[in-house]
Amino acid sequence: MALSRVCWARAALWGSAVTPGPHVTRKLQLVRCGLAWGAPRYLFPRQLLIQHFWTPKQQIDFLDIYHALRKQSHPEILCYLEKVIPLVSDAGLRGHMTELCTKIQHGTHPAIHDILALRECFSNHPLGMKQLHALQMKALSRAMLLTPYLPSFLLRHRLRTHTTVIHQLDKALAKLGIGQLSPQEVKSACYLRGLNSTHIAEERCRTWLGEWLQISCSLKEAELSLLLHNVVLLSVNYTGTRR
């Protein structure tokens, strides 16, 4: 269960959309005041209660809401990848990128080798972490449930920091072994990495997490922009994911 707590702690670190902000106590005081004045019901458990106090149904409903928010950025991220294809200097990589984008647009879940074949594109121009356009960083921030309303240099720093944390967690998880995780820990780990695991069977979640770890543990620090984009690439068409 320790790993689960780490995963959800990191999820909280990735933005207030996953857990309430720092003013929970004040808000609860306001709610109590409202109730004292005859407010008809308790309206905002998602914003005012930490996840520990969510009911099982609330947990599913709220995680669906959060995933719907981050999913809104997926088309923008994929469209950007298509637009930069002409900027890839290597003809072979341009072909791989075109093939990957076409597969995803047609609803195909990409294979591990399809994604890793593009690692060079994501280590320097045009998709390296230092070369990402501001609009793409804003879309990626939304996909990670982070606020996009920051200057470009802060968006880049925060995306690099959070992706590095995930990469380190992935290495530790690979050493531990997915088989050591409980069903809830597996689903939590998948959700943190972009998959809406609330409606996917446990074994399917374990399979997906295994694919993610294979990709992540194959990447060097300079290639972490690919891991960042993998939040969308690997999750968007996975079997069982709600549209």
From TrEMBL:
One of its GO terms (biological process) is intracellular monoatomic cation homeostasis. InterPro entries: LETM1-like_RBD, LETM1/MDM38-like. Coiled coil: none annotated. It comes from the Eukaryota. The keyword Nucleotide-binding does not apply. It is a single-pass membrane protein. Residues 69-243 form the Letm1 RBD domain. It holds the Pfam family LETM1_RBD. It is found in: Mitochondrion inner membrane. PROSITE patterns: LETM1_RBD. Keywords: Membrane, Mitochondrion, Mitochondrion inner membrane, Transmembrane, Transmembrane helix. GO terms for cellular component: mitochondrial inner membrane. GO terms for molecular function: ribosome binding. This is LETM1 domain-containing protein 1 isoform X8. It comes from Neomonachus schauinslandi. The gene is LETMD1.
